[in-house]
Amino acid sequence: MKNKWQRILAAYMEALEVPGQDTPVYKPRHGTYVWVVVGYGETPAPPPSLERQDVATRGGREVDIDASDPDFLLFHKTIGMTEYTHCIPWDAISDIVFVTKGSA
Questions:
Q1: 34 with 28: CB under 8 angstroms?
Q2: What are the structural domain ranges in the chain?
Q3: DSSP alpha helices (H): ranges in 13-103?
Q4: How far apart are CA 67 and CA 50, in angstroms?
Q5: Strand partners, 6
Q6: What angle do CA 60, 34, 93 make, to 5 degrees?
Q7: Which residues are bridge partners to 77 per DSSP?
Q8: Residue 55: its pLDDT value, please?
Q9: What is the model's pLDDT at position 99?
Q10: Exposure of 1 by Cβ count < 10 A (0-12 exposed, 13-18 middle, 19+ buried)?
Q11: What pLDDT score was predicted for residue 8?
């Protein structure tokens, strides 16, 4: 499962090389939001609306994803001055949604 998700991350995100680490850390491309869907059901829940994402990103939100751990996808986010790290088991991921906001 890990290799499948790593291929998806490499295709849709910007890779940042970390010295001393074989696997890159990924950052969303400019204007792209990433939503990791966790669940064991047949169909994942729909992604949040764009309006909700717009509000969340205005507060200085930074996201990076570390795929180097063999058991977990490490999803790190900083909102304002608060940092969060989510350790998501690779086999618990049912979907990764990339939403790119178009310029109008």
A1: yes
A2: 2-100
A3: 50-57
A4: 26
A5: none
A6: 135
A7: 63, 84
A8: 44
A9: 86
A10: exposed
A11: 93
The residue with tokens 């990791």 is 36
Residue 75 · residue 62 · CB < 8 Å: no
- Residue ranges, the chain, pLDDT below 70: 40-61, 103-104
Element (H, E) at 10: helix 2-12
Distance CA 66, CA 34 (A): 13
Q: Could you please report the per-residue DSSP string of the chain?
A: -HHHHHHHHHHHEEEE--TT-SSPEEEEPTTEEEEEEE-SSSSPPPPPPHHHHHHHHTTTEEEEEE--SSSEEEEEEEETTEEEEEEEEGGGEEEEEEEEPPP-
User: Roughly how many angstroms between the first and final C-alpha of the chain, as a whole number?
Assistant: 37
